[in-house]
Input
Amino acid sequence: MVAGETSRFEITERLKPALAIVDLSLDRSEGLHRLTRLRSRCPDPKLIVISVHDQPGVCRAAQENGADGFVLRRSIATDFCPAMLLCNRAGRISRLRQG
Output
């Protein structure tokens, strides 16, 4: 589901999903801000970030802002399902796969 800024938080609060996906690809700094806001308003869902940015600092920043997992867009076909499973089991993915 794709949602606008306001409705994204309202929908997440109402539906209480187990997993939410945040795309940092378009605007990394704005995406990190949204990630922080989402985590503060909805602390329960696992948050997986997808991004085209493959610098380790981006993964670290995503985790510092509340992400439980990080998947590079170029590796999404092979890494997304394992990321979901790891988040479900371990609670947080602590390493970035450089794909």
Summary: Residues 94-99 have pLDDT under 50 and may be disordered. The chain has one domain: 5-90.
